[in-house]
Write a structure and sequence with these properties.
The chain is an alpha+beta fold. 28% of the residues lie in helices and 28% in strands. The relative contact order is 0.20.
């Protein structure tokens, strides 16, 4: 297993069928109502801890699933019936106009506006994934999206539920969370994507598995600084904006893990509803502006 470059990571994370249809009405109604859930807790999902060979991250792997790739904090796993989970996919972008399939310098996956809305950035990443994979552009429809309350060093983060289709074919839905970091002095910014998917036929039993795996994801000490570090070397002029993480900051690791934990909790809350008014605010239910 090798650490993948930016374009290879996009190809690895491309999912041919994105279908989590069973819980979509619950995602939307829970977000709209912002009321604590009284639903009984589901039985815990049994997971076997997996650690990447480079020791950068770990996550629980469900029985019958296999880790298919990863490195440098990213873990990709799949089930036997077309289920997929992508944890910590790092997509490096250059600030500029977006054009699907546009080539970029080595290590940079795509060019897109750093000032774009978080939802638009997510769509552009999916479109670039399709272009790199040689598949038709997906038609992404947001069923739900909300900004998370995260430290400024993480830029913007949000949870999402999207429907993915091509032409008259409905490929299904995907759920996860996404962060777009502030840009560095070279107009380069990092984006981190975590999500799960499954074919419609197995969506019902896959839904709690996806949530359990996402909640188990952990970055190893020291790796957060490497993942969040600016791509461009420090320059005399200002970057795209304040807030670029300092790789030497001892709190950087805690900030990144904190954002991951919030994203995991709020992805879970999309299905069962927020457990408290504090969580409702933290997860963006009170101001869903993605």
């Amino acid at each position: 297993m090798q650490i993948c470059d930016a374009m290879k990571c996009l190809r690895i994370a491309a999912v041919p069928a994105i279908s989590i249809v069973i819980g979509v009405p619950a995602f939307v109604s829970a977000a709209a109502q912002a009321t604590p859930s009284t639903a009984p807790a589901a039985p815990p999902v049994q997971l076997q801890t997996y650690t990447l060979p480079d020791k950068s991250a770990s996550a629980g792997v469900p029985a019958g699933w296999k880790v298919t790739g990863g490195g440098a904090g990213m873990i990709v796993m799949s089930g036997s019936q077309g289920e997929n989970i992508v944890l910590g996919q790092l997509v490096v972008a250059r600030n500029g106009p977006f054009r699907a399939g546009q080539t970029a310098p080595s290590g940079i996956a795509l060019t897109m506006p750093g000032s774009a809305k978080l939802s638009d950035k997510l769509v552009m990443i999916f479109q670039q994934t399709a272009a790199v994979s040689g598949t038709p552009a997906p038609q992404i429809k947001f069923l739900y999206g909300a900004l998370l309350q995260v430290p400024a060093a993480m830029g913007q983060c949000g949870v999402f539920v999207v429907n993915n289709s091509r032409g008259n074919t409905n490929l299904g839905d995907a759920i996860g969370f996404f962060c777009s970091l502030p840009g560095d002095s070279g107009q380069i910014f990092k984006n981190i994507l975590t999500y799960g998917s499954a074919p419609a036929a197995v969506a019902a039993q896959t839904e709690p598995i996806i949530l359990a795996v996402i909640k188990s994801y952990t970055i190893a000490p020291g790796w957060s600084q490497k993942i969040l570090a600016p791509v461009s070397p420090p320059a005399g002029g200002p970057g795209m904006g304040p807030g670029t993480p300092d790789v030497g900051d001892p709190y950087t690791g805690a900030i990144f893990q904190h954002a991951i934990d919030i994203g995991a909790q709020c992805t879970d809350a999309n299905i069962i509803g927020p457990s408290s008014w504090h969580q409702a605010a933290q997860c963006g239910y009170l101001s869903p502006d993605f």
